Amino acid sequence: MAKGFWRVLHWQIFAAMVLGLVSGALWPEATLALGFFGDIFLKLLKLIIIPLITFSLAAGVASIGNLRGVGRIGAKTFFYYLFTNATAVVIGLVLVNLLQPGKGVSLPLKEAPQSVLEGKTSVAEILMGIVPDNPVAAMASSNYLQVIVFALAVGVFLTLLEGERRRVWMDFVQGGFELFMKMTSAIIRLAPIGVFALLGRTIAQVGLGVLAPLAWYLATVAAALALQAVVVLPLLVWGVARRAPGAYARAFAPALLTAFSTASSNATLPLSMTCATQRAGISPPIATFVLPLGATINMNGTALYEAVAALFIAQVYSIQLSITQQLIVLLTAMLAGVGSAGIPMAGLVMMAIVLRSVGLPLEGIGYIIGVDRILDMARTTVNVWGDMVGCAVVERSEGG
């Protein structure tokens, strides 16, 4: 796509966000009626996610050329994810301990979702569910972790093929990747309409009045996310990747704005990959390896949010968590983020795991459920930004 198209799209999406906020606040009923346009946009994005992940990862891994290269890039990618997730959670824990947003607060307790209260999901079950027993079923059920494992396996074994067989299979996966990137380019043109409808409906449904009782909690989460997004990650772009953080962020602006509106890392993946290769100059092998993995398992914002919310709930109940318990929250929040994609009310389900790990009441989720959607948009944007920074860091480490 031409540079002029991206510049126009960037401002179109931004204008759509502003219009969505205004329309949702002033004309909620009319805006709700237009919400189906957002659903259509999301469905179109989800239509291509599974094939895009499958073909992009397989092609990306195979194009690296050998198992040693795959292992090296994979190790760097996972180390980056581990480091940034840990940093995000530590920032969240420090701020929530300093600001004490839940201390002495009396809030109306809304009913926590029954699926959360009755859920038996554990970190062990999440880890056990990573390996697929049927890749077709994994694709049909949109189990992104299992699809990623299958696509990685295909790419790895493609590197072991030789001669004509390797060429035929490489043409197939590369052709599939190019096909779905073409489809992505067409769907991207509808982004302003989808963003307006999705954001407008969210504001119309939630209402701005829900923010007031939890203002200090919202400020704590926002401050922690901001430190991760505008301090830690830009420092990595500048200090490790040797790129200008502002210019790099602008290259991904359409994807970041879409991430905020859709509150879905996976739905944003097609735009992230297009921005990475066409605007940010990231090499396709790196982008196709790092971004699909990151969209599912690299959750800077989610891990941070889980930790802050857990301590906020503890403070509301006047429960003092020890340093050891807070370390358990740190580790559990990092692990829970791995399985958060593709699960209905993902943040709340993962929150249940974190609360269980230190014996906090699950009913406490009812205190924060009213603003979960707003915070979901913010933490998803940080998640996606973290993936994008990972591309620059890994590419630089490979001499790019």
Please describe what this structure looks like.
It is a single chain. This protein has a single domain, classed as Sodium:dicarboxylate symporter (Proton glutamate symport protein, Orthogonal Bundle), CATH 1.10.3860.10. The protein has 20 helices and no strands. The chain has helices at residues 3-26, 28-33, 35-64, 67-99, 114-118, 123-128, 135-140, 144-158, 163-188, 191-206, 215-239, 245-251, 253-262, 265-278, 284-297, 300-316, 323-338, 346-357, 365-368, 372-397. The mean pLDDT is 84. Helix 14 runs antiparallel to helix 15.
| Low-pLDDT segments, ≥5 res | none
Terminal residue distance: 23 Å
Major sheet size, sense and barrel closure: none
CATH architecture: Orthogonal Bundle
In CATH, what is the class?
Mainly Alpha
Strand content: under 5%
Q: What gyration radius follows from the Cα positions, in whole Å?
A: 21 Å
What integer is the average pLDDT?
Answer: 84
Number of strands: 0
- What name goes with the CATH superfamily? Sodium:dicarboxylate symporter
Order of secondary-structure elements: HHHHHHHHHHHHHHHHHHHH
Principal-axis shape equals globular
Structural class: mainly alpha
Give the number of helices: 20
CATH topology: Proton glutamate symport protein
Helical content, roughly?
A: over 70%
Q: How many domains make up the 3D coordinates? A: 1
